Recover the amino acids of this structure.
C-alpha cells in the first residue's frame, strides 16, 4: 500500500512560472514531510522539509504548504528556472517511531526557456 | 572526498555472477541505508544499519546481502540476481537512525542480463 501519493507525474512550466507539486498521505502519525530534488545521474538531495506545527515554510523560491486536516502538502517553486528541471520527491515519516521515509513516486519537472 | 560516495557507478552482470556495491560516507554519521530506485516506483528502503548493527531488513530477498564493517562503510553483495533487480541502488546516511537529515550518494546503476 502506497503511503504517499504524489501528483502530477510530470510537469512542464515556462521560465518564470510557478511549479506546483502535490502530495497526500493517510497515516496521521506522520510528523515530518521533506521534499527531495534529484538531477539526472545524481542521488536525491534534501530540498526543504516541514513539520505539521506550521502551515507553510519558505526557503528562497521554494515553499511548502501544509494542510493537516486534509492530510495534504505541496511544493511551490516560484519564478521557476531551467536549472530547476529535475525530479522532485515528496516523503513522509513518523520521526518518533521509525526511520523509514515513505516516498511518493516522483514528479519530473521541465522548465522551458 | 566529501558526502556519500558509491562505487561502481554502473554495473552490468549476468544472473549467475557475484558482485558487490560499495558505499562510503565522510560525514561522521552513525546510520547507513540501502534504497532501491526503480522507474515509476517510490524509493524502497532495503536495509538500515545503526553503528554497524542491522536494524531493518525490509523483506529483501536473500540474493541481496548487506555488510557494514564500520559506521563509514556499507556494502551490498549481489548473487544470482534476476532481471527485475535492475535498478538504481542508493546508499544514504544520517546522524542517527531517524528519517531526518538523510544524505544520499549518487547511486549505482545495476543492469542484470
Amino acid at each position: 500500500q502506497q503511503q504517499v501519493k504524489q501528483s502530477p507525474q510530470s510537469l512542464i512550466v515556462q521560465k518564470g512560472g510557478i511549479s506546483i507539486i502535490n502530495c497526500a498521505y493517510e497515516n496521521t502519525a506522520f510528523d515530518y514531510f521533506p521534499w527531495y530534488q534529484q538531477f539526472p545521474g545524481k542521488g536525491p538531495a534534501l530540498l526543504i522539509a516541514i513539520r505539521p506545527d506550521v502551515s507553510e515554510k519558505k526557503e528562497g523560491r521554494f515553499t511548502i504548504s501544509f494542510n493537516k486536516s486534509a492530510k495534504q502538502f505541496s511544493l511551490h517553486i516560484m519564478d521557476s528556472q531551467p536549472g530547476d528541471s529535475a525530479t522532485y520527491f515528496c516523503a513522509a515519516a513518523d520521526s518518533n517511531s521509525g526511520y523509514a521515509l515513505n516516498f511518493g513516486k516522483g514528479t519530473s519537472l521541465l522548465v522551458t526557456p | 572526498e566529501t558526502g556519500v560516495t558509491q562505487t561502481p557507478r554502473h554495473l552490468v552482470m549476468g544472473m549467475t555472477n557475484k558482485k558487490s556495491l560499495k558505499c562510503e560516507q565522510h560525514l561522521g554519521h552513525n546510520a547507513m541505508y540501502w534504497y532501491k530506485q526503480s522507474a515509476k516506483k517510490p524509493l524502497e528502503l532495503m536495509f538500515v544499519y545503526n553503528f554497524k548493527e542491522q536494524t531493518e531488513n525490509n523483506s529483501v530477498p536473500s540474493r541481496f546481502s548487506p555488510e557494514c564493517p564500520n559506521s563509514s562503510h556499507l556494502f551490498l553483495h549481489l548473487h544470482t540476481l534476476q532481471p527485475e533487480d535492475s535498478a538504481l541502488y542508493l546508499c544514504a546516511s544520517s546522524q542517527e537512525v531517524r528519517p531526518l537529515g538523510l544524505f544520499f550518494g549518487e547511486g549505482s546503476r545495476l543492469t542484470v542480463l
About this structure: Chain A touches chain B through 25 residues (CB under 8 Å). DSSP finds no helices and eleven strands in chain A.
